[in-house]
């Protein structure tokens, strides 16, 4: 076509757009909406992907992850589909991996990791008090012993009350009659007569006869990452210690994830009050919302989680304080019978101080929208200091139990140094899913021991006089017979100390000595890791570095897999891919509808313009001019309205970027890499939107344009003869 | 004597209409000389427009031959026919058929732009001349919808003549006009025929319009009843 024809086409296109306003408006609005949607959708997804990558990279994954090629499962740092650890194999010699891969110019750091599940058992209240009493007895702290004895007797008194109540309703009369007899024994003054001089037999009696009568303790099951904590802190700078301190370099230690403590471990009354407070204050739910109502009722029923922990002095003090707060923060009158929780009150005995306290505490926990803020504040100011909010605190030594690689249960003592969270991700379940510990403890718990480590352990064993009983000689040691050794249940490849779990004597001393030991970087590196996080100097070169590292590992015969953060994170990393697929399906459907509408409008417009097209053809316009004219009319419209839609979409994203989109659920906190997402748009979003719009416009116009080219010039001639 | 500018030899045009074939032209033979001002007359359905379609190269015969300015049209491609129309022919339609979104001047300029080789200054000059010749200079910026029927047809005439075609086809050019305006239009065409030496071929069944023609070809039932030289279809070839 000649330049004049192009000029003609431009002139006609522009005039036709302006003159066929209804058609232009319908098609323009559709294109505008489509373009707006694509820009907003893709920009949102890009922003989420970018923020999610920040969450994943800066919390646990690093830019790349490396692990053995021999595992059965793929690495899933945030967990796969199962509630068990994946079998990702192991890297027996982390040092070699580190040395080999660190040579790459783009590798900043390689941090060894071992991710698995462990359990911690928290004893019941009696267990806790008895443990404290033993500690006090060991150092002969009489004042503490007296105070703790009162607390113990308070618990006994509460148990007597509860057993008396239970006797009235239970069919298992013997259990509670016998229990009451035992409680009578320990309540008698003569039981305690030698306590001050020799407390241990009393405590042993409580251990064997009374602790078992109390409610069971709780077993916590959680995921942990064993790592080089110093390197981890250095490279994952979102790690923030919220209580306690960081594990000192070269020491064994454990860091609880704050989210786990807050959501699963914290005192149940405090936890439920947190939840109710959050729902009413932050989420603006009314107190008679069915979910909130259920939780309030439930919290009223679990008042003993507080009262069981109170010393008599605190119980007395709390009763007086509760009188004040109840007067100060009255409940609004109950109008709906569903909000009347008075039937949840335990029976009141006005002469019993425990009973009065129970009632007042229940009354206190019966909160409503009007008093929650004040009562919540009171709980943490007055009640919380009187109870143990968390069963595990900085400074405690906990016993972790885990399964070794070959399936043995192994227990390791480790000191809790502190509580951490990943900054900005404090509320996220995913980032809050892992606790941290040093890699040496991980190797012990998981059953990996190097020769050096074995030698070191042997030294400690001889120092502490621990006697090791392993599976080969277990029967002889335990039962004194020289029975045939039991067939080995698992193959040992020399890096395993399969039977270290069967130590019997000197266990505590051994563990204490182990905890006191320091280890150097050599010991950290020189051992097994399951996987390792690779931090890059230039994350922009992730792909090429990944390929290069794969080659390097292959050349060094390391048999490793190098995966990016998205793949390493498991199903979480695939989330954006999934959402992207859903978005594109939605866009496809919208565009398919748009395509039909545009197509129909254009066909109708073509029919209206038959005479005009015929005339053009008659006076000498080639059919390709007609085709180009139709396509360019739509292209012009698509450019204007698609451009406007893209502009509005970018403007909307910019506005959202200033306001921030609040992460209303825990998963969103992780996806948004913080409490709010501040989306951004990029040129690529506009280009994608524009390309899609142009494509849709051209496809939808092509058929009508083709019809137009087939209009014969003869139609321009008079229809009448 | 010079060769006729249009020659129709035994032209047959048949249209399929359902299962039936309708014969619109049945062996028409006709010569038209350059510079003629000729009308094709006949009752409705007689085949006037079909003859104009054949001469105007907007349609091709089923059988027979149409030669326009020495160019046989039956075997020409659509592209070549279009080019022929653009360079040799001008069209004036019964319903004016102006491009509604363009102004008077832009409508007149339209075929010049299609021709592609005429520069802006030349186009402007030619358009201005043509618009002036049809007496619409004051209205040159207006849209067709702002003009009267007569004015629209003048625009159509200007558009038909601006490329300086050899032949101008006009299909019932006065049918949608009142008699006075129709008269003016035919007089304008006649004037241009004389001043520009352009061959005008138009169809009409209005006797007053016919009176202006130098030659009247009468068509009936798809045949030439009288070619204006005393010949009919069946003896035209022999003549």
State the oligomer: heterodimer
Helical percentage of chain B = 25-40%
Radius of gyration of chain A: 36 Å
The total beta strand count of chain B reads: 10
Task: Give me the number of helical elements of chain B.
Answer: 8
Detailed description of the structure:
The complex is a heterodimer of chains A (721) and B (239). With 721 residues, chain A is α+β, with helices and mostly antiparallel strands. Among the domains of chain A are: 3-55 and 573-714, no CATH class; 267-380, no CATH class. Chain A contains 27 helices and twelve strands. A six-stranded mixed β-barrel of chain A has the order 2-3-8-5-7-6, surrounded by five helices. In chain A, strands 11-12 form a two-stranded antiparallel ribbon. In chain A, strand 6 and strand 7 form a beta hairpin. In chain A, helix 2 (21-61) packs across helix 25 (623-659). Mean pLDDT of chain A is 83; it is low at 481-505. Chain B is of the alpha/beta class and 239 residues long. Chain B has eight helices and ten strands. Chain B has helices at residues 48-55, 78-88, 104-115, 120-133, 149-161, 179-196, 207-210, 233-236, and strands at residues 6-17, 20-32, 37-41, 63-68, 71-72, 89-92, 167-171, 199-204, 215-220, 223-226. In chain B, the strands form two sheets. Chain B has a six-stranded mixed sheet with strand order 6-7-8-3-9-10, with helices on both faces. In chain B, strands 2-1-4-5 form a four-stranded antiparallel sheet. In chain B, strand 7, helix 6 (179-196) and strand 8 (199-204) form a beta-alpha-beta unit. The longest helix of chain B is centred in the C-terminal third of the chain and has 18 residues, at 179-196. The chains are: A alpha+beta (721), B alpha/beta (239).
């Amino acid at each position: 076509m000649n330049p004049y024809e192009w000029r003609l086409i431009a002139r006609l296109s522009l005039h036709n757009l302006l003159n066929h306003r209804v058609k232009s408006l319908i098609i323009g609005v559709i294109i505008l909406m489509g373009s707006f949607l694509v820009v907003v959708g893709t920009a949102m997804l890009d922003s989420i992907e970018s923020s999610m990558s920040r969450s994943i990279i800066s919390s646990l994954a690093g830019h790349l992850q490396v692990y053995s090629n021999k595992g059965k499962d793929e690495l899933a740092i945030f967990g796969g589909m199962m509630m068990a650890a994946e079998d990702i194999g192991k890297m027996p010699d982390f040092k070699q991996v580190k040395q080999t891969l660190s040579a790459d110019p783009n590798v900043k750091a390689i941090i060894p990791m071992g991710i698995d599940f462990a359990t911690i058992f928290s004893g019941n209240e009696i267990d806790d008090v008895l443990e404290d009493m033993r500690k006090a007895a060991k150092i002969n702290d009489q004042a503490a012993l007296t105070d703790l004895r009162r607390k113990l007797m308070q618990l006994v008194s509460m148990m007597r009350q509860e057993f008396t109540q239970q006797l009235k309703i239970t069919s298992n009369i013997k259990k509670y009659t016998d229990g009451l007899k035992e409680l009578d024994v320990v309540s008698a003054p003569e039981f305690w007569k030698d306590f001050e001089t020799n407390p241990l037999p009393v405590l042993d009696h409580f251990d064997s006869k009374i602790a078992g009568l109390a409610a069971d303790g709780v077993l916590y099951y959680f995921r942990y990452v064993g790592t080089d904590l110093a390197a981890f802190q250095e490279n994952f700078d979102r790690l923030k210690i919220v209580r306690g301190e960081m594990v000192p370099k070269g020491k064994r230690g454990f860091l609880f994830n704050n989210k786990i403590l807050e959501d699963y471990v914290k005192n149940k009354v405090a936890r439920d009050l947190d939840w109710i407070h959050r729902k009413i204050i932050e989420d603006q739910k009314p107190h008679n919302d069915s979910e909130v109502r259920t939780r309030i009722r439930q919290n009223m029923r679990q008042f003993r989680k507080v009262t069981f922990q109170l010393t008599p002095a605190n119980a007395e003090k709390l009763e007086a304080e509760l009188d004040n707060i109840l007067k100060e923060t009255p409940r609004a009158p109950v109008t709906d019978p569903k909000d009347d929780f008075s039937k949840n009150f335990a029976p009141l005995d006005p002469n019993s101080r425990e009973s009065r306290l129970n009632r007042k505490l229940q009354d206190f926990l019966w909160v409503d929208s009007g008093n929650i803020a004040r009562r919540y504040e009171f709980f943490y100011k007055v009640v919380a200091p009187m109870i143990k909010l968390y069963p595990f605190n900085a400074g405690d030594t906990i016993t972790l139990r885990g399964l070794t690689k070959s399936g043995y249960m192994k227990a390791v003592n480790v000191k809790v140094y502190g509580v951490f969270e990943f900054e900005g991700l404090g509320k996220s379940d995913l980032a809050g899913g892992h606790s941290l510990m040093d890699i040496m403890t991980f190797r012990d718990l998981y059953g990996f021991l190097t020769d050096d480590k074995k030698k070191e352990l042997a030294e400690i064993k001889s120092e502490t006089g621990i006697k090791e009983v392993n599976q080969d000689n277990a029967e002889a040691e335990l039962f004194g017979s020289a029975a045939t050794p039991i067939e080995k249940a698992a193959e040992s490849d020399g890096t395993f100390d399969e039977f270290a779990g069967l130590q019997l004597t000197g266990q505590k001393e051994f563990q204490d000595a182990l905890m006191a030991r320091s280890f150097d970087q050599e010991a950290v590196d020189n051992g097994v890791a399951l996987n390792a996080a690779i931090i890059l100097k230039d994350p922009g070169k992730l792909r090429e570095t990944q390929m290069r590292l794969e080659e390097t590992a292959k050349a060094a015969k390391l048999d490793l897999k190098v995966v990016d953060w998205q793949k390493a994170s498991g199903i979480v990393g695939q989330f954006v891919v999934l959402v992207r697929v859903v978005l594109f399906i939605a866009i496809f459907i919208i565009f398919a509808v748009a395509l039909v509408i545009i197509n129909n409008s254009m066909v109708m417009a073509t029919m209206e313009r038959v005479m005009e097209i015929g005339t053009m053809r008659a006076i000498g316009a080639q059919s390709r001019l007609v085709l180009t004219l139709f396509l360019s009319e739509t292209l012009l419209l698509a450019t204007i309205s698609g451009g406007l839609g893209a502009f509005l979409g970018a403007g909307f994203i910019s506005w959202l970027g200033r306001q921030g989109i609040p992460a209303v659920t825990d998963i969103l906190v992780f996806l948004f890499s913080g409490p709010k997402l501040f989306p951004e748009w990029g040129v690529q979003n506009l280009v994608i939107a524009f390309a899609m719009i142009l494509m849709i416009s051209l496809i939808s116009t092509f058929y009508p344009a083709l019809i137009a080219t087939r209009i014969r010039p003869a139609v321009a001639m008079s229809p009448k003869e | 004597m010079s060769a006729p500018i249009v020659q129709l030899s035994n032209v047959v045009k048949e249209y399929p209409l359902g299962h039936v074939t309708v014969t619109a032209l049945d062996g028409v033979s006709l010569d038209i000389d350059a510079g003629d001002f000729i009308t094709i007359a006949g009752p409705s359905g007689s085949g006037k427009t079909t003859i104009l379609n054949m001469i105007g190269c907007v349609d091709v015969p089923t059988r027979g031959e149409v030669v326009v300015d020495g160019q046989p049209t039956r075997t020409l491609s659509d592209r070549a026919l279009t080019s022929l129309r653009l360079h040799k022919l001008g069209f004036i339609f019964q319903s004016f058929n102006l491009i509604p979104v363009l102004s008077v001047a832009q409508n007149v300029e339209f075929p010049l732009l299609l021709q592609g080789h005429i520069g802006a200054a030349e186009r402007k000059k030619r358009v201005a001349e043509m618009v002036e010749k049809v007496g619409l200079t004051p209205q040159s910026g207006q849209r067709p919808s702002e003009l009267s029927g007569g004015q629209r047809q003048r625009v159509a005439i200007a558009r038909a003549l601006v490329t300086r075609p050899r032949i101008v086809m006009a299909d019932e050019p006065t049918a949608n006009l009142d008699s006075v305006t129709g008269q003016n239009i035919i007089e304008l065409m006649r004037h241009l025929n004389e001043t520009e030496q352009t061959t005008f071929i138009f169809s009409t069944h209005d006797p007053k319009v016919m009176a202006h023609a130098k030659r009247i070809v009468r068509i009936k039932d798809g045949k030439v009843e009288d070619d204006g030289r005393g010949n009919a279809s069946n003896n035209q070839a022999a003549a």
